[in-house]
Specification:
12 strands, alpha/beta, eight-stranded mixed sheet, 328 residues
Length: 328
């Protein structure tokens, strides 16, 4: 993996409201490499979804506004191309799976019509050919009786089946990039595992790159090659998944790691899961210095005053913290 298919530079997104301008994403930069799964993790409210929606300019404007930055794909800045050019990219080259398939699917259209729409929009297929392709897509995402499902409506399917339909819709035009925003939210553990396996299989089969937005660290350790950790709208750590979770460099990453139970771990009375105290700060009440310092067990006086910057520390890793060594 040497070539980047997507390059994000200094992306800053704000929202205007009764409390004034609130910055939801504050100058993040990263690259998505060809054929990799890049995971973006963090607690709810840290800016993961806003950052992902901004890549395709899907945030409502107003109240949202992309203030600065660039999103480069195929030598074009997606933040500057005209709406017609952007519509050609959406769904065809870059597809997105949204968090809740029940609200994302149209309740008054059959599944067949919804899957066929991008095919008829972005390809030269006839209606009959689009129908046959849609059936094959449902079969590809392992939906039983695909011909029958084509005539059904979203409410007639289970949550897991609806999520598979959403994945199928995203794959209709063989996109180069798939943005998966919390693809296993509200699904039971068995269905979550099936969706993870399906994403892995489809990535290997098609060679597409996946930007995975999630707070499920268990999923990340299974399928991601690299990880971005976000907090309060900023990247606080990034690097190869294995190294990042084996030796986290930021206290927040360590806190996330320690708050996740490990399968097969023996119960020990003197070793309990450790929660991160407090909550992600409100956008209109961000603390001075490092945004994580009120919750950090390793806080120093400097953390309360000076804001650390994201810096390279070798081996493809970056961290934004004043600690010199391992936070553990």
């Amino acid at each position: 993996m040497t070539d980047s298919v997507l390059r994000v530079e200094n992306l800053k997104v704000s929202f205007s409201g009764k409390d004034g301008k609130l910055t939801a994403v504050n100058g993040i930069s990263y690259r998505l490499m060809a054929g990799e799964i890049l995971a973006m993790v963090g607690e709810s409210g840290c800016g993961k979804t806003v950052g992902a929606l901004s890549l395709l300019r899907l945030i409502p404007e107003p109240p949202g506004k992309i203030e600065t930055g660039s999103v480069t794909f195929n030598c074009k800045d997606l933040l500057k191309i005209n709406p017609q050019e952007l519509r050609e990219v959406r769904g065809r080259d870059i597809a997105m799976i949204f968090q809740d398939p029940m609200t994302s699917l149209n309740p008054v259209l059959t599944l067949g019509n919804q899957i066929m729409e991008p095919l008829l929009r972005h390809t030269s297929l006839t209606h009959k050919e689009a129908w046959e392709k849609a059936v094959e897509i449902l079969r590809q995402v392992e939906i039983p009786s695909p011909v029958e499902k084509m005539t059904q409506y979203p409410h007639q399917l289970s949550g897991g089946m609806r999520q598979r339909v959403m994945i199928g819709m995203a794959l209709t035009c063989s996109p180069k990039i798939l943005i998966a925003d919390e693809p296993t939210t509200a699904l039971d553990v068995l269905i979550q595992a099936q969706i993870i396996d399906l994403l892995q299989h489809l990535k290997e089969q098609t060679g597409m790159s996946i930007l995975l937005i999630t707070h499920d660290l268990g999923m990340v350790t299974e399928i991601a090659q690299r990880v971005i950790v976000m907090y309060a709208g900023e990247i606080v750590e990034s690097g190869p998944a294995r190294e990042l979770f084996h030796t986290p460099l930021h206290p927040y990453t360590l806190g996330l790691k320690n708050s996740v139970p490990k399968l097969g771990q023996k119960k020990e009375t003197n070793k309990r899961l450790v929660e991160i105290p407090g909550n992600v700060p409100s956008l209109n009440q961000l603390p001075s210095g490092c945004a994580f310092h009120p919750r950090c067990p390793s806080v120093m006086e400097r953390c309360k005053i000076d804001k650390p910057v994201l810096r390279e520390v070798g081996h493809g890793r970056e961290v934004s913290c004043w600690l010199e060594g391992n936070p553990s």
